[in-house]
Amino acid sequence: MTYETIIVEKRGRVGLIVLNRPESLNALNEAMMVELGRALDAFESEANIGCIVITGSERAFAAGADIKEMQGKVFPATYRDDFIGNWDRVTRTRKPVIAAVSGYALGGGCELAMMCDFILASPTAKFGQPEITLGIIPGAGGTQRLTHAVGKAKAMEMCLTGRNMDAEEAERAGLVSRIVASGDLVEEAIRTAEKIADMSMPAVMMAKESVNNAQEMSLTAGTRTERRLFHSLFATADQKEGMAAFAEKRSPQFKHK
Ligand code: CO8
Fold first, then answer.
1. pTM of this structure
2. Alpha helices, H only, 71-175
3. Which domain does 211 fall in, by range?
4. Are 134 and 88 spatial neighbours (Cβ–Cβ below 8 Å)?
5. Ligand 1 in contact with 84 (CB < 6 A)?
6. How many structural domains compose the chain?
7. Best of 29, 57, 67 to mutate for ligand 1, by most ligand atoms within 8 A of CB?
8. Å from CA of 24 to ligand 1 middle
9. 89: phi then psi, degrees, rounded to nearest 5
10. Shared-domain flag, residues 108 and 218
11. Is the CB of 63 under 6 A from ligand 1?
12. Looking at 158, 177, 197, which one is the last position of a domain?
């Protein structure tokens, strides 16, 4: 498959997607989001891929939706065509997706990173929802996922003022899982993805599903669903292998990868 706005590579069992519109700091446009969806579809259906990494450039993960493409849009068409309605493909990916963020992750760029399962950031990362400065509000989950990640006070301040968070503040607030030294970000994201791809895939997918349930369900419903998933994993050969390997003091060789 050929792509114009992204670069797609396989690194062993890891699928790597690099956002690549350097002339506009990786501003997200319709073409890029369609290509991102196609790349995710391809990795999702490829049995050999166990985890996906999305990254941008040193300077920008993505500086938001493409303002120049958006600026002439009018309400009836945005509503009728459900503008950006298909930009949330990442959230429907069942394999884990890691965002490796260096530089700007603003507006839709911050929202795209938050759609991933977790964010690794370089010390240069800057997260923000500057839509308010353009006379609009976040449209792809910024007011929701940011609030879940960092709490109401910080999310509200960022959405009302457009203030950015640097990597350290984002890590303290729980938006990013770890800061990785500049220059090593993508390789560390790939190493982390390899580690995940080496686990039992049904367990990985159920862990992802269950953690995501914490944002959607009550504690009672979430823990009950978690327990059912936990029970079901005792039907897998990988549970037998994982526990036998522990008892025999060796590394597990999971079958369902
Ligand atoms: N859209 C289009 N072009 C952009 C964007 C953007 N979001 N961001 C940067 N560019 C372009 C600039 O216009 C410039 O192009 P040119 O060289 O032709 O003038 C080039 O990229 C380089 O940018 P700057 O010269 O501005 O670089 P600076 O280092 O001076 O500044 C900034 C970097 C601070 C990132 C600045 O470019 C900026 O403020 N960008 C806009 C950030 C923004 O407001 N983002 C929010 C956009 S709205 C949005 O995302 C709605 C979300 C919708 C849902 C998305 C679903 C996933």
1. 0.97
2. 75-80, 108-115, 142-150, 152-161, 167-173
3. 200-248
4. no
5. yes
6. 2
7. 67
8. 6
9. -55, -35
10. no
11. yes
12. 197
